[in-house]
Amino acid sequence: MTVLCQDILHLGSLKKAELIGGANGLNRVVRWIHVIDIPDVAKWVHEGDIVATTCINLNSEIINWEEYIEQLNNEKLAGLIINIGPYIPSVPEIVKKMADEMNFPIFTLPWEVKLADVTREVSKILVKDQLANDSISDFDSFLQYIASESKTLTGKSIENSHTKKVHQVVVFKIVNWLLGAASHIGSKEVDLGYAKLLLQRIIQDIAVQQRPPLSAKLMLGEDDVIAIITHVVSSEIDLFVNNIVDKIGKSGIEMQVGVGCNYADMKELCKSYDQAEFSLKCAVVLKNSKNVFNYKKLGILKLVFDGRDYQELEEYYQDTLSQLVEYDRNFESNLVESVRVFLEENSNGIKAAKKLYVHRNTLRYRIQRAEEILGLNFANGEDRLSVQAALLIGKVMEL
For a designed S-S bond to 360, which of 144, 160, 268, 353 qualifies (C-beta 3.0 to 4.6 A apart)? Predict the structure, then answer.
């Protein structure tokens, strides 16, 4: 169901709320709630938000109430909650008049009611409602839902389209959602829910704003948002993803993005989804400034892992490195990590020693000991490649 302004009046924290104007706007849809005590609201809100305020910085000496209410209405907010108390003992009549004229709901709340309780309760029902609407247990069910909703993701028949469109899956995984903007809610569960809803909104907004516009069908996962993107030009997806990463980063959300390949046939979307998920697994190996991992750009990782028997890969890892791993376990040494860094630095002992914070003679001893245990010579190209492949497998498979 959709949460309306009139629905939140039934919440326990708002039992003492009084509607003072804008009754004809009670059917406005509520998307989120914020406590904001500054006059310049526009940059902090989105359409459908409710603003709650104590008016600590909104006294009549510094604010033009007509401009303030007009600003809120122009931003298409759902309503305004004013906490009556020491900072605003009563609401000016002009506010009530404008609320009625604009059909913009304005509520008052006694000072003894804590706005923290209001935001917590409203946030919880909004998150619960949104997750209920968007909850689909798995990607296969999501595809079935998309197929039943329309013939194509754009709502038009592919056969009737003069432009060839392709579809691909992008997975936006949230890795840090402790948002400063939402910290007052006091619930990690709600913070994550808010992060997903904010990410969903940003994805939809940027998809529409991009030229030409993209179609984005979204599914909310446990800690991610899965998007099926329909577009024309392959390069569009890079701009689309980068714009989302840049915007969401300003909101305090840290995420990683996995991008699958694009396909003209929607039947291939499961393959695109697997590619996007695999790309995210490779995040432990690959590093980049935007945390965007495109399957097409995975290089040797695709060669090693794509379509492989993971049991076979694990056996290769064990056959190659088990003796070294066992030695580290028995003697509490650090030979595996030393070898990894040494090979990453192209066998440059000085750089590797610096990276490991050890003397280069110490590193030289470790490398020699590792070669003895493994029966290999890291100066030999084949030996070096076999160990690097094993280390790569271990890191991606978390062995």
Answer: 353
